[in-house]
Predict the structure.
Amino acid sequence: MKRITLKSVTTEAKLLLIGIPVLLWTIIPIYHMVLFAISPRDQATSGRLWPKNPTLDNFAFVFRQKHFYLEHFWTQLGNSLVIALSVGILTLAISTMAAFAISRLKVRGGRTVMNLALFTYCIPAAFLAVPMYKTMGNYGLLNSQWALILAMVTIASPYCIWVLKQASDKLPYELDEAARMDGATALQLFRLVYLPLMVPSLVAVGTYALLLAWNEYLYAFLLLSNDASLTLAVALGNFLSADDSPWELLMTTGLIYAMPPAAIYYTFKRYMVSGLTAGAVKS
Amino acid sequence: MASVSFKNIEKSFGKIKIIHGISFDIADGEFVVLVGPSGCGKSTLLRMLAGLEEISDGEIAIDDRVINELDSKDRDIAMVFQSYALYPHMTVRDNMAFSLKLRKADAELTNKRVGDAARILNLDPLLDRFPRELSGGQRQRVAMGRAIVRDPKVFLFDEPLSNLDAKLRVAMRAEIKALHQRLKTTTVYVTHDQIEAMTMADRIVVMNDGIIEQIGTPLELFDHPGNLFVAQFIGSPAMNVFKGTLRQRDGRAWVEAQGHQWPAGATSTGVDGQAVHYGVRPGDIGITAAGQGIAAKVFVVEPTGAETELVLKVGEMTFTVVLHGRTAVSPDDIVGLQIDAAKVHLFDEDSGKRLD
């Protein structure tokens, strides 16, 4: 049995002292969202801690698209999903290959390319929104979901390349040399040795890109205008375009919108903290 | 099986030249050890043979075929790395079969080769484990298995035992040697440990600062070191060396140092009055009662069971003496040193070259 000492008690107390406010800070807004989502319309802003007669009617409203703002709910949810997945997959493909080339193949000038890519973060994405709009217009991509996908891949890639490059650098270089001596070509090295060992980082980076696109508002708002091609994030924003907004529906939709990221995070959590390379080389 | 030859090999990293024109040949089936202090270029030389480093100048040939421009995978060599470099996501079996898989060998051949290698190395019960589930010695054996499965022309070992503890190192040393006697594959082995070199090699190549100091069998290097560096590098405990003046008269020779006359064999290359390094191995010095030989004071006595190591002082100079068996001397005793003139090594003070 673990012995309880004064030191362990005070450490625990300090952790709780930090943990409880952080927990409240995170939970309270979500609690209010839930409160709105399960309240009938006339009680939504009553100020009670728990509604007098909680209901799931709001969810039924949303799922059956029974409101002016919700006419394209399922389409828009689908759009968000397709766009986020596309961005995740594309970013992953591009940044994995880039990181492999820079870190493992040590391509000449690779570091410069990476640094230049990172430099793009010196300019806030919001500043680039209008030029990006103009560019997409030049290519005739406006109102196409490709415009948003390409824009998000552009924004996500530099950071992903950087993260993957750092992770790649930690793989022992002898593995590459051993594989080369065993007769592997660069592509075989990539497929048979590099990718399997990078899985935890790939999941982390893919999730990052996917969630970035899922949560994106500004670019989606600018680049897409047709109601049926909007993402749910923009559709949620449109709820506020009237004076009399249906708050309880907004919050319900918001809650639904927040579910997939939470699910993704819990599914892949174990990948984000695992040491798959244990046993490769003696450290 | 194959012969290997190095011709005027040079290597520079940028402007820094680290290997200065090395030439030597390795015979078919020979076990050659490259040994030297860290930074001497031995690993770089091995990596050039492996195709992991570019050759700046000169030619390396395997079986008389120049391989300078050949990719690692086309050189038909296998390498065991210091860090083992096992693929962590593959089982022992898959690790060993990887090279055959890349060559698209059929399953039957792969199974046979992996099975044979596993039997030789006692890896049978471990075939389905992952590297992280193995001990250091087992990982080392898997790394060797991966090389054996290839059935290459040449085996390369890059300090394969440095990560093992002392006891395991001795055991693996014997295993590698036994493996070579069984497979008779040409082997190039790099180490900084001269004992490994002495115990395993057919021939040793002693390197220092990017050049070869001497090539020879272990006992040749031990008995006739060609220069001061080899004399001090080979042998443990290290040779006792000090400076003195050579005296040669009437076919008799001795060295004057520390106010004593040290016995030496007559040389044909040394001249009377030449400044020399006087070297004698710890095992070639005998101890007698005080009054005979050169007087020395006992400083430390280190009994190891079969042998006793003494640290003695002659004036300010420290001497190491290894006696077989046990001795009754204790610290602060005065004893006499007896040196067999035939076992003394003399080196020119400026060039470090051996005087014979």
